[in-house]
Amino acid sequence: MSHKKQQLYLLLSGIFIVNALLAEIIGVKIFSVDALMGLPGNLTAGVLIWPVVFVTTDIINEYFGKQGVLRISYLTVALILFAFVVIYATTKLPPAAFWLDVNKTDAEGRPFNIDFAYQSIFRQGLGIIVGSITAFGIGQVLDATVFQALRRATGGRYVWLRATGSTLISQLVDSFVVLFVAFYLFGNWTLDQVLSVANTNYWYKFAAAILLTPVLYLAHFLIDRYLGEEVTQELQREATADVSV
Length: 245
Known about the structure:
Arp2/3 complex 21 kDa subunit ARPC3; Probable queuosine precursor transporter; mainly alpha; transport; single chain; membrane; globular
């Protein structure tokens, strides 16, 4: 593989891993869309940057095929597990007395336990870890598979269709699986709460997938210019044939 191909795959993989890992870490927070924008519903904080993962997944699939997506997805799953283990281990470290003392009150003078807050935020339960990994794995395999199926069905035409279509189908599954496993099977949410938040999450992802279509075309334009026509065509032929990078 040429130097430019390696650089491109490395760059896309870095963007993919960083945003997927961040989404998993900040996903523990549920915020009110109504309080923020006056719209009904609640969202997980992680969903805000998940569209970056959508776009990156589709670009990797376009140039490096299904195997290129799965390779980086499996690596990301391993890194997410590693991150959760490290974060959990830090919550078990005994807090320094002076750290507790200088942070013993909040901005309004109310009693505050910073170590308890740290543990509450970062000690994500087994359910969230299992739910996140399960949903991420299923979603990525489904996205990569549907993308290539649509690509072959359209003869390589309609980039927007295979990119958007694969995202909408995979995230329909992902949005419900992660919340169902994490907060219903392992948590204390009702099924109605799971369905409500999952529904809002999905429609946000739906809108983001549509709105980010121009970004996908811009990325294609820039990458094609960077690689050159000959290399671009070679990569896309290999991607369609599912040849490993």
